Amino acid sequence: MKPHVIALGLGILLATQTSLAVDRPGGRAFVTRSPAVGAHGMAATSQPLASLAAIDILRAGGNAVDAAIAANAVQCVTEPTSCGLGGDLFAIVWDSKTQKLHGLNASGRSPQALSIEEFQRLGHETIPPHGVLPITVPGCVDGWFTLHKRFGKLPIEQVLAPAINHARDGYAVTEVTARHWAAGVRVFRDQPGWADVFLIDGQPPQHGQQFRNPALASTLEKIAAGGADAFYRGEIARVIDQFMREHGGYLRYEDLASHHSDWVEPVSVAYRGYEVWELPPNGQGIAALQMLQVLKQFDLAKAGFGSPDHLHLFLEAKKLAFEDRARFYADPDFNPAPVEGLISDEYGARRAKLIDPHHAATELAAGDPLLRDGDTIYLTTADKDHNMVSLIQSNYRGFGAGPCPPGLGFCLQDRGELFNLEPGHANSFAPGKRPFHTIIPAFLTKEGRPVMSFGVMGGDMQPQGHVQIIVNLLDFQMGLQEAGDAPRVRHDGSSTPTGLPADKKGGQAYVESGVSAETIGELERRGHRVKHGGDFGGYQAIWYDADRGVYYGATESRKDGIAIGY
């Protein structure tokens, strides 16, 4: 298979398949647009102003890391419904100098003053999604500076300038963001400080309406001038500390001052001649690798895209991986997961034997490898020197926990909701511990060379989306944009790392409108419960064609974003 065939998104057009006749000049009926192409640089994000900022930074002499930070900062201003300075960050960087991948875990830890016993005293059996209790240390800003210190090229003031300008001068709110903003009003309006930051005369901004956030502009200016210390050990940290004390929260100045990001080694599995890379826990990336290890035991290409066999195998592989996710994935500083065993060929083959090709499983258990919704942004950038960045950043539930410290222009994340309050569980709450995390960047190589940086945002959908993208590209020979536009499926109802048990009826499969009635009928005959609708994530990708010396970029048709190459 030639990489440029994948990148151009031509798909497989068979003359006998009249259902593939389309109005566009190439690709299957569901393809929405052409992939972007450029020889010097590429950016793909879910927000046009972020993509433009990344390209401007590249054209000004910055590299892919500078561009990724600039894009993320702009999204913190323009997509506060999904990300922000109060959230966490993960990244995978292909560095052309060292010719290797570098992983960054920039997720924050729980407050030292909070404990399972305190939750019990307050009468909580699970951690609430909003308010002060689920708030953990924001890792985003330290993630920017950790990336920039190791790989950045331009001054950080120049990198953050586009975000500062948009926050101060205003920007026109995009359609999908406006919809999520409006939906958040009911949930967040009464959270301390939220309405002061995010409403205009008591109302959310509409599609196309200008929105300004001068407080966030001031915060970004302080960070640009004072670095990470300005956020974690300066005035900003003291404002957060005082705010939390006033509202019964537990996050303290000392929690912020002691925070640090960690460089981690990405892990991979081989799939159809390529290497698929994810970050190890406390994130859920290896769930995608576990699913691929199961799926490669089957001939998906023969089954055909969208067929009952294809979707049945996918759903069953997901169920298997997610039971292991619920049992093992956690902060490795507290409970190291048996990652090598979980993603091994032997274990994948053994788990695959548990799949009944004709019947959906209703009850599954985690294996022995040792022999739900969320809003997120994903972006990817690449530069003329062939550095590539795969970056994901999030508040977790939309605007996060909701509380907004005064004068800062952002709210704090609710990642702590993803802890388990059962003592002794791998992911059980502990002071100074990182929670289980849903946000995951990904990367694809071939024989150790960079091929694709990609991600699919959206809570539990993320590893499911990663697998569907890889399968679409490598099993079904789709193009880069085509692989993202293809109708997706999502399964909910597995056991969770927070302690929720699996649905005894086998969970719920959700499908997009492109899945045929015939396929749905056959899935139901095999025992799957199937519904239309749901959240199917958001995809961005950059493919590097070394033979032609160009990048191809794809972006999510379900979001507001664009891919730009030059």
What is the gist of this entry?
With 566 residues, the chain is α+β, with helices and mostly antiparallel strands. The chain has 20 helices and 19 strands. The N terminus is likely disordered.
Give the helices and strands, then pairings.
Elements: H1 3-8, E1 36-38, E2 42-45, H2 48-59, H3 64-78, E3 88-95, E4 100-106, H4 116-121, H5 140-151, H6 156-169, E5 171-172, H7 175-188, H8 194-198, E6 210-211, H9 214-226, H10 228-232, H11 235-246, H12 253-257, E7 262-264, E8 267-271, E9 274-278, H13 285-295, H14 300-303, H15 308-328, H16 339-342, H17 345-352, E10 375-382, E11 388-396, E12 442-446, E13 449-457, H18 461-474, H19 480-485, E14 489-492, E15 508-511, H20 517-525, E16 530-532, E17 538-545, E18 550-555, E19 562-565
Parallel strand pairs: 15-16
Antiparallel strand pairs: 1-18, 2-10, 2-19, 3-4, 3-11, 4-7, 5-6, 8-9, 9-12, 10-11, 12-13, 13-17, 14-15, 17-18
In words, what does this structure look like?
Keywords: Acyltransferase, Glutathione biosynthesis, Hydrolase, Signal, Transferase, Zymogen. Belongs to the gamma-glutamyltransferase family. One of its GO terms (biological process) is glutathione biosynthetic process. Residues 485-507 are annotated as: Disordered. Residues 1-21 form the signal peptide. With 566 residues, this protein is of the alpha+beta class. It has two domains: 3-39 and 267-374 and 437-565, Gamma-glutamyltranspeptidase, small (S) subunit (Glutamine Phosphoribosylpyrophosphate, subunit 1, domain 1, 4-Layer Sandwich); 62-263 and 389-418, no CATH class. The protein has helices spanning 3-8, 48-59, 64-78, 116-121, 140-151, 156-169, 175-188, 194-198, 214-226, 228-232, 235-246, 253-257, 285-295, 300-303, 308-328, 339-342, 345-352, 461-474, 480-485, 517-525, and strands spanning 36-38, 42-45, 88-95, 100-106, 171-172, 210-211, 262-264, 267-271, 274-278, 375-382, 388-396, 442-446, 449-457, 489-492, 508-511, 530-532, 538-545, 550-555, 562-565. The strands form four sheets. A seven-stranded antiparallel beta sheet has the order 1-18-17-13-12-9-8. A hairpin with a 5-residue loop joins strand 10 (375-382) and strand 11 (388-396). Helix 13 (285-295) crosses helix 15 (308-328). The longest helix has 21 residues, at 308-328. The protein is globular, with a radius of gyration of 22 Å. The two termini are 26 Å apart. The model is unreliable at 1-21 (pLDDT under 50).
